[in-house]
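Hey, quick one: can you model this chain's 3D structure?
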Amino acid sequence: MPKNITDLVTLAKSTAQIERYATPQDRLVKGNPEQNNTLHFSTDDRFFVGEWGAEVGCWKVSYTESEYFHILSGKSILRDTEGNELTVIAGDKICVPAGFEGEWDVIEPTQKIYAIYEN
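Sure thing. Here's the predicted structure for all 119 residues.
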């Protein structure tokens, strides 16, 4: 079915609601950071676009999906299971492949825009 201009999603004009939630206890490494997510667009339960953020804290991650994200603000460290680290700050654009495991460590409250493809 063809789409037209009314089918486009402008994130800045989106009426999507912000969801706020606690980090699951079984994944916590330190702190008790609140996270937030605004899902702006999704298709067929496999592709998602939104804005995510979290307060200071650290938790375990295990990606079943592939993700592209653009950090809007803050500072976080992605750490793999071998202890290798990548610090991400505002302006950074990162692709995370499905299968990545490690930790997400928020040093300063962080917000990002993301696009996820569930493999």
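One thing worth noting: The chain has a mean pLDDT of 97.
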